[in-house]
Amino acid sequence: MNEPAGGGIDRRPEDLERAVVHAAAVLERLAEAQAAPRPRRNRAAMLVMGLLLLGSIGSSFLVLAWIVGGGLGGRESRADELMRLTGAFRDALADRAKYEEKVASLESRAARLEKDLADQKSAGSEAASELDRTRADLQAARKKVFEYDNRAIDEKKGIDKMLELIAAKRGFGGANPNDSGAASHPSLAAGDGDTNIPVSLAGPDALHPAAARALKPLPPSAVKELNLLLAYSTQTSLSLIEAAGTVGHELRDAFFTKYGPQGKPAGFVSAARVTFEESRIEPRLRMRLLDGFDIVGKTRTPFVSRDVDFRSVDPSDWKRRIPEIFAGASGAAESKPAEPAPRNPRSDAVIGRLNKIFAAHTDYLRLRIDDVVSIEPGVSMASGS
Amino acid sequence: MTLVVDRDATAPRVDETVRAERMSLTLRVAERRLEIDLDDGTRGRGRPVPFPGGKLHYFIPGVALSELEGGDPAIPFQKR
Which residues contact A49 (CB under 8 A, 6 or more apart)? Predict the structure, then answer.
């Protein structure tokens, strides 16, 4: 902006004044030169000097005319133009600043929108993958339900086949009174046919030969009556399939089907002994399963005892209907609970010690051992190694 | 073997009942951790469900060797 126009010549007033002073000095030196005594020169030198003087004067006037005419007149118009250009430039700068702000705002908005879009894309992809996983799980669960349905149907067929086999073999308990219960045991009869029973029924107190000789077969009518009682007077879903027989008024080697909430078979329950008791306080009968197993699939889980209460029943009526098992039920059992399977007192002491240790460390989880059938000595010996 | 499990230590209640055919105890002495290994059983309060893979494990941290050793009768456990 401060650069002078006109090929680098300064056109300020100071420059004009300096040019005039320079021209005056040139004229003064010329006058002095004319007044001084002239040396003797030849005509050619005089001619050259004259030409030089004329050139100098002409150039001075030319410079003066250019400066006066072009410098002053142009200075005013260029200043206006400069002012105009400066104003326009300032306006442009202001507009540019506005647009710069707008650009910055739009850039930040675009960045935010891009980020939101990326987040939404990632969330969408996560939701899509979650949906895929859920669909896959659903399909697998449906497949499992279908498999379990098929398995339940197969188990039901196996049970029916076994019942037919048992009924055909011994007339369902009544055909041959001398038939040993142990001989009719499905686990022993398995070699005679395809029973499709998943596990052996032999529990820890498998029927002893002497006890087997004392067995009395349970008539089918008693099985039917007991199943009616189980179906309508209990909260459990057990159904007696077969028992080896009765010793006194106890069932031996009983085998029950356990049904799930929807009435489908959900496993089996076996018990080496089943006792029946009557409450003296209220009209209630109790069936106690001793030394048995919960059987789910191929898994056998032992238990020591399990009670099944028949509530709101008339004990005397059921004693008449199923004398084989209820005739011996008396109120004495209410005051003196039946002894479960003989347990090792050392097992109870170990359980007590372990439960104390568990109770002392409850930060992570609480455990309590309710009962133990037996303790294997091999583990104890291994503890010393 | 019947084991009653409660994971909510602040409000004791029975979360589930575990029944297993075998239970073995292993004490990680250096880590002071008692491992309970259960084989062939079921778990659940309502319908019992077999253990996944036939096995179930629990850990009790902070158990010292002195708590298990000695005493009569001896607690059957393994040391590692």
Answer: A41
